[in-house]
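Working notes for the structural subgroup meeting. M.R. asked for a predicted model of this chain before we commit to crystallization trials. I am recording the input and output together here so anyone reviewing the notebook later can reproduce the run.

Input as submitted:
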Amino acid sequence: MTDLRIVSLLPSATEIICALGLEAQLVGVTHECDYPPSVRDLPKVTHTLIPTDATSQEIDHLVRERLQSVQALYTLNLPVLEALQPDVIVTQALCDVCAVAEEEVKAAACRLPGSPQVINLEPQTLEEVFASLHQVAAATGRQSVAEEVVAGLQARVEAVARRSAMVDRRPRVALLEWLHPPFSCGHWSPELVHLAGGEEVLGRAGVPSRTLTWEEVAAARPEVVFVACCGFSVERTLEDLDLLAAHPVWSSLPAVRQGQVYVTDGSHYFSRPGPRLVESLEILAHALHPALHLRPTVAPAVAYRPKHQGAAVGV
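Returned structure, recorded in token form:
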């Protein structure tokens, strides 16, 4: 299947495709696909309806408005997609916020010459993320590569789990996917917290994240707050954290009082159900138990410090 032409409709799928050694066959990606860096120059087959200068509250309002009207936040660039003539389109129906609507993808595929195969990924757990690699591999003739890649990822997960089994006490952790308003983590992220040696106090494994109030966060008494805002860089997340300084409930959280607030790049980690979820686990594990878990090979989490206490620092 060396002559397949593949289009990816979400960043995690792009990362899966490249991990399987198929980057040379990748002909189109989304406007958000940026890893590995070499894919940034490929034709873009989507665009977003979210203004680039929108605040977190404005983005939340737009998302809720669009979901109520069953309108997607991303849409296909059909002329580009048609010109690429893909044999395979990799998409997802897990999250209505994160990608082009499934119905739009199916309708577009029917219009394209050759009726390309549509691979729909819907992982909700870490094991199902690994299964997604096998799913793409089965459609592209890369089964043996997938076996090797998944085995390597699972070995790294097991290494973290073995070290975490030695912790005397698991801190109470709130891994937040959004701040204005706060969102719990969901799907695979509570599982990552457990593997990293923590106890997730707000999110539930295998189910979507949910909107919270700061009073709910306070009632959970988190000893560590780990922030991975979906789609945001560390710098963008730190801006939102600074806005919380005046919130009376925020300052009462045990994690805030003890200086145990950490930030990571939610655009690249935790939100993308692909191979780098293992790096997400390693980042989180080191932040929770730095003496036990190795410093990650990628950028570690940043320890948040309010502006009057100086800049945030890596851990």
